[in-house]
Every structure is written in structure tokens, then in C-alpha cells.
Amino acid sequence: MYIRKQRLLTPGPTPLYPPALHAMMAADIHHRTEEFRKIYRSCLADLKEMMGTAHDVLMFAASGTGAMDASVSNLFSRGDKVVVCSAGKFGERWVEIAKAYGLEGDVLTAPYGEVVTPERVEAALAAEPATKGVFVQASETSTGAMHDVRAMAQAVAKTGAIFVVDAITGFGTMPLDIDGWGIDVAIGGSQKAFMIPPGLAFMSVSPKAWKMGETSTLPHYYFNLKKEKKSGDAGESSWTPATAMILALAEALRYIKQIGMANLIVNAQMLAQATRAAVTALGLQLFAPGSPGSSVTAVKAPQGMDSGVIVKEFRNRFGAIIANGQGTMKGQIFRLAHLGYFDFADLFATIAGLEIILNANGYSVQYGTGVAAAQQVYAQAAVKPQPVTA
After folding, report:
1. Cross-strand bridge partners of residue 53
2. How many domains does the chain have?
3. CATH code for the domain of 322
């Protein structure tokens, strides 16, 4: 009761992989040396492998939003017609970026908790054959919903438009066949399933996207895809890189390769399934029941209770940080993350804490009900453990 470990239970930043944290202590290395070039090249190669693409992969010292910005400023021109899918806070960010660069966006909106359907995207493309691009979130972290990226990609691939996917919380939580489905730009960030601090953004760029960039007239300087590719091919970044972060990424990517990206995705999916079972057993309602993703589970607060109370109680009682709702959902939902360095022991403790918080704030539940539901999912999925010998 008197010792409280701080725990990150948010969909970004996420818990850090300890060896990656230790690797950052070797950051007194110069970035224009062959020693660092070797690390940089290995990160780009491992990113391609983990992302499952033969396309070029670029890396920036930035948050994921930096790569989102770069995808617009390098590949489009003012006045280009685009389709923007907006079903939450981060879809709204795509809208804002497109507007900032003067693109003419056909914004397809869906209420928070729902998703934009592939059929709507296909209809929008048919209505405007001159469309140059389609933007979407693979996983809309603000609501816990997941878009049907595969079906959308199939619709876009039939046209001259490029498909730009914010996969910042999609990587490591859902299947994403970049090359096979026809995803032209896929964007990731370090502080999500890659288990290291914020500060790195990366993106894959298809030949179709590179060709689109040849006619782009929008201004850009720091986020210069052509310059970054040339530098990356030489084993360097165009500008001073976040050396400590890249050392951490190299270590985290080794770990993900050891696990296997497919198994990292299954880990998130099983935690999400168990969380949904647990909160449902407690009589709570899921916020995005129709298209739930595996990066985060959004849960409606009990009627009459502000979700901020639950968020504050987690912090004050257990030193744990969970996420409130964003945008219009602030105070109405709370979000529990599953991406990256989370395991079932983390989840059991989180659900047990939630039961205590609910009871302490007037929403009566039987202790152990949610935990038992999560345990049941684990027991059904877990591989039988091998005997332990001394």
C-alpha cells in the first residue's frame, strides 16, 4: 500500500522494453561514423522486415504526426482532391493537415466509436475520378475502433490515387499487408508497439507514391522524403538523428524479431479480447463494439460517473496512468491499452484495480468478476507451461 510503482497503461507512450532503455545509455556516439551507420542501416532493414514491406522505409526524429505531415507536403500539391476518413480525434488531425496544405478534401465522417466503411470510400472515389489520395487511420486510438484497411486499399488500388495510412497504433496490433494490399504510405511511431519512448517516426513509401511525389509542388524542408531516402541509402539521416532513440529502436526490433510480428499482434489481440470480456462481465459497455481494435479498448463510464474520476483514481491509488476520452468523448470513456510491452499479468492487475475503483465510487461489482473473465480468456488461449526444474 505504501509502495506504488508508476505504470503506463496508455496507448502511447507505452511501457518501455528494459534492454532498449539500457541501450540508450550508449548514446555518446557520433552519428557520422561507420559504427553508427551500421546501426542505422540495421534499423531501416529491420523496420522493413517487421513492417512486412519491400518498399522504401524512411525514419525521422519526430512524433508520428511529423510523418503524417511529410506524407502530405512531399506527395501532393495545393488544390489536389483527396478523400479524408475522419472517425475520431486522429482522423480530425488528417483533416487539419490536409487543410493546412490547401488540399481539397472530401471528408467522410463517422461518429466517434464508429468507422468509415470501405463502401463510402469507393463511392467517393467513383464520384471524383481526379482524387489524388485517400487518408485513414488503421486504428483510431481515440475511440478504440479499427478501420477495414484491406477493403479500403482494394478500392483505392483500382484508381490513380495513393492510399496513406496512419498505422501508428496499427503496427503490432492488427495485420497490415503493405505490399499485398496496396498501402502506398504506412506511418508508424516509436512510442507505441515498438516499446520505446516518443521521438521517432517512420514511413514506408511505395513506387506509386514516389511517382506521385514527382509532381508535388508543396513546400517542405526538414521533412524531405527524397533527401531522406538518399541519406538512408548511405546509412545516415539527413539531419542530426535522435541517436539514443535509434539505439533503443535497434534493441526493440531485435526483440520483436525474436517474438515475431505476428505473435506481437496476437498478444495485443488476446489482451483486447480479455479486456472486453472483463469489462462486459462488470456490466460496463464497450464504446466501439461494432469494430473494436486491439491497440486500446474504450469503455463507457458508468452512468452518472465522469470517466475522469476513474482516470484520477488509477493514478492516485495505484500510480497507474490510463487514458481519458479525447475530444468530445472526454469525461465519457476511459481507455486501456494493449500494444507493445504488455502481458496478462499487467491486465489482471488493471482489472482488479478497476473493480476496487468502481466499488469505491458507488458502482457496485463483485470483486473478482472481471478478473475471472480475463483469466478465462487467458486459460483458454495459453500454451500448457513446461515443467520447471530446479
Report:
1. none
2. 2
3. 3.90.1150.10
pLDDT in tens, 26-85: 999 999 999 999 999 999 999 999 999 999 999 999 999 999 999 999 999 999 999 999
- Residue 239 grid coordinates: 539531419
Q: CATH number for the domain including 199?
A: 3.40.640.10
Which of 299-307's residues contact partners 24+ apart within 8 Å by CB, and which partners? 299/333, 299/334, 299/335, 299/336, 300/332, 300/333, 301/331, 301/332, 301/333, 301/334, 302/358, 302/363, 305/361, 305/362, 305/363, 306/331, 307/331, 307/332, 307/333, 307/334
> pLDDT tens across 184-237, in order?
999 999 999 999 999 999 999 999 999 999 999 999 999 999 999 999 999 999
> In one letter, which amino acid is 57?
V
Dihedral-angle region of residue 268 (phi above 0 means left; psi in -120 to 50 means alpha; beta otherwise): alpha
390 within domain boundaries: no
Same domain, yes or no, for 76 and 176? yes
